[in-house]
Write a structure and sequence with these properties.
Elements lengths: L5 E5 L5 H9 L4 E5 L6 E2 L4 E7 L19 E8 L12 E5 L5 H6 L10 E7 L10 H10 L4 E10 L2 E10 L1
Parallel strand pairs: 1-2, 1-6, 3-5, 6-7
Antiparallel strand pairs: 4-5, 7-9, 8-9
Length: about 170
Amino acid sequence: GEEPKTLIDIGANEGDFSKAAKFYFPNIKIYQFDINNNTGLWNENTKLKFYKSSDESMQSTLFQPTHFKPNTLVETDVKRFDSLKIPIKRPCFVKIDVEGAEYQVLEGFGERLDEVDVLQIEEVFSDFFKKRIKLSRILNLLENHGFRGFQQINITVEGNKLEKCDLIFFK
């Protein structure tokens, strides 16, 4: 019932989600992260290989993709969110779209995940990325930080198989 005061847009790409949020909530403070702009998040402060696709229909990722051959492999800096001194005013909404690295990004929030009120993640059910953490571990992590339910939206079905969707978690 309360307007969000902070939006953390992880996997922001061109910032379309943030622009829409700013339109509906003009007073919201927005923090954007996207590995394509050298502002990647992870569960440790380190350098990682980033599999980059020049084909916009394919996802760039920190995990080796199984469904396309990346055009470029680059090394990039990534940070834990909780190592950054970002002030969070509540209610706080976090959107994560990081092509299979959702669990690691959430781990990098540490105890700051307790300051998040609503969380939206994209979940891909196909094995597009090697070593991707399954949804069951994400659910356990979120439950440990007070999230108690979710709503499924933006469902994509290929044939008769669930391909991907967005999950909105709440406390």
